[in-house]
Fold:
Amino acid sequence: MNVQRSVFDIIILIALFPLYLISKIIPKDERLYLFGSSLGHHFSDNSKYLFLYVSENCKKIKPLFISKNKAVVDFILERGANAAYLYSFRGIMSALRAKKVFLSHSSEDIYPALLGGAEKIQLWHGTPLRMIGYDADWKAPDRKAKIKNLFRRLFYAVFPYLYSSSDFDKIVVSSEHVCESFKSAFNIGDEKIVCIGQPRNDCLFESYNLNSKFHDSSKIEDMISDAIYLISYLPTHRKPSPTTIVDLMRNYRFDVIEFNSMLKKADTLLVVKPHFLELGSVNEYLKNLSNIKVYDETDPYPLMRKTDILITDYSSVFFDFLLLNKPLIFAPFDYEEYRQNNADFYYDYQQVTPGPKCNNWDEVKREILRLIELFNNDKIDSYASERERVKKMFNKYDDCFAEKIVKELF
Structure:
């Protein structure tokens, strides 16, 4: 999906067109590689994990994380890695002179007008279930929309950097099975596809050090210290739909007190990971509960590593969780509404979701109790082989993702 900008932002970017042209001819530093993520706001996702691997293992280049958030820059610098605030002389000059740029969302992870001459490598932030990019942005259901899109195409032809979700030199995907959807989403050919996987998935395995200076697993350990099992609920953020996580609980029979009591009896903790825009409302709704907690960190992957059961709906995070072959519970309560308010899906939902599909929280609760009983009796659930099938479809490799990217693209 292309970035939504204000009229003021667009005017500023148009005014920077000469700078964009200059960026295309400024000599590049062959050793300078930039990393950015989450539209410049967070230190997270695939860019974060590739940056940390490169900083530790690739001494012949100069990795630099660029952020629009000073707190992110300070966090990285305090721990001995290299970072710069975008709106500084160093940040701007580094963006203009970088040889390669690694992104997780769009060129807005850094700043599109500064990246004209860099090789832009899109790591993306998951394997999309619903349609994205060109497939979502350029739908034209009627003549009026088609005319509007014609003017948009002319506009972007003149100012290509303004369509910051396109114009990448390489896109890293997780398997051959997803190549067609990425080619369609980004309007690219086979030559730009690199089939490796996602660096953030390195974090899922015990070989990855979660107790380093860049990761503090103590918060998760403290959270789950009194529980035998950990269940994580990671629903999709439903923008532009008005539906929130709290709505998904209130409207589909989530009895907070009863659910908490059930979890307590089963020595199980439920951790809810909301989108940061919903954090306040979810915290308020789930406050003061012994066995239901809210995870307020941006990066969910340390949490997923500790998770025994994942509950989700349409989030691509479950494709990553398949690498662990642990049980999944799907909660597509508002399936028809979601399909109506968002783009269509790339894949048949029933065929790529290896787990029970629940219509409400009563059904989720039943599935949780069923899985806990299997855990307690050291039995494997009936979806294990189906998870393995879907995992192989969506994950070509199952380890060392950052290392493979370095070998392929550095």
Remarks:
- The first strand starts at residue 29 and ends at 35.
- The first helix runs from residue 7 to 15.
- Residues 217-394 form a domain with the Rossmann fold fold (CATH 3.40.50.12580).
